[in-house]
Amino acid sequence: MRLASRPMEPIETARLTLEPWSEAHREPFRRMTLDPQVVRYVAHGEPWDEQLAEERFQAGITLNRERGYGRWALLERATGGWAGLVILQPVGPGTEGVDPEAVEVGWCVEPAVWGRGYATESACAVVAAGFGAHGLDRIWARIAPPNAASARVAVKLGMEKVSTTRNPFGMDADIYLLDRPA
Ligand SMILES: CC(C)(COP(=O)(O)OP(=O)(O)OC[C@H]1O[C@@H](n2cnc3c(N)ncnc32)[C@H](O)[C@@H]1OP(=O)(O)O)[C@@H](O)C(=O)NCCC(=O)NCCS
């Protein structure tokens, strides 16, 4: 297995610390995956069972170790509190028309702090790292068509909607793209 050359460092943004995914994030992540308003437009759209949550939790740990990017917890610097997570990861198999190796950005913010710009702020930082330190040429996003807040985040990042497909659970997914700035 190829390992990242050095352990990931936290990323600091104006109001957030993006902390590399670790055991400390298992419980707050699990709690979010049980919240119907959080998962409404994620995966199959229903609260996650233990197995799916654990698979995704572990995938974040493995990705970070192997690639030096993958998944970060969002911590509000003012309070130190958990504010959600941001992802930069291969799309993986099962999304029609998308190369499983294509790298996507994703976001999930604690409902108590929705609307403060945290998804956009954190995603901007990991997209910059993707195009910078990690040498990506293109970043994708998959967004359920009714998920207007998420679509707005993608547009604020400069992403463009290019097509609609289905995610591995059979749910409609709009595909957004962002190319590395010239
Ligand atoms: C999508 C999500 C991450 C957005 O987080 P956030 O921190 O509130 O996002 P931001 O504040 O950075 O931006 C949200 C934008 O959407 C807009 N918005 C919010 N609800 C909206 C709605 N129902 N219709 C249209 N726009 C909406 C906000 O006004 C804001 O845009 P603005 O800055 O132009 O005013 C958050 O709602 C969430 O975690 N949802 C559940 C998980 C999820 O669906 N993740 C995405 C999977 S693709």
Question: Would you kindly provide a brief summary of this structure?
Answer:
With 182 residues, this protein is an alpha+beta fold. The protein is built from 5 helices and 8 strands, in the order ββαααβββαβαββ. Helix 1 packs across helix 3.
Overall radius of gyration: 15 Å
- The name CATH uses for the topology is Aminopeptidase
| Range of helix content | 25-40%
Order of helices and strands: EEHHHEEEHEHEE
* Count of helix runs: 5
Tell me how many strands there are: 8
Strand content: 25-35%
CATH superfamily: Gcn5-related N-acetyltransferase (GNAT)
Rounded average pLDDT = 96
Q: Give the class-level CATH name.
A: Alpha Beta
> How are strands sequenced across the largest beta sheet?
1-2-3-4-5
Label the CATH architecture.
Answer: 3-Layer(aba) Sandwich
Low-confidence stretches: none
The shape is: globular
Overall structural domain count: 1
Which class best fits the helix and strand makeup? alpha+beta
Kindly, what is the distance between the CA atoms of the first and last residues, rounded to a whole number of angstroms? 33 Å
Largest sheet: 5 strands, antiparallel
Bound molecules: coenzyme A
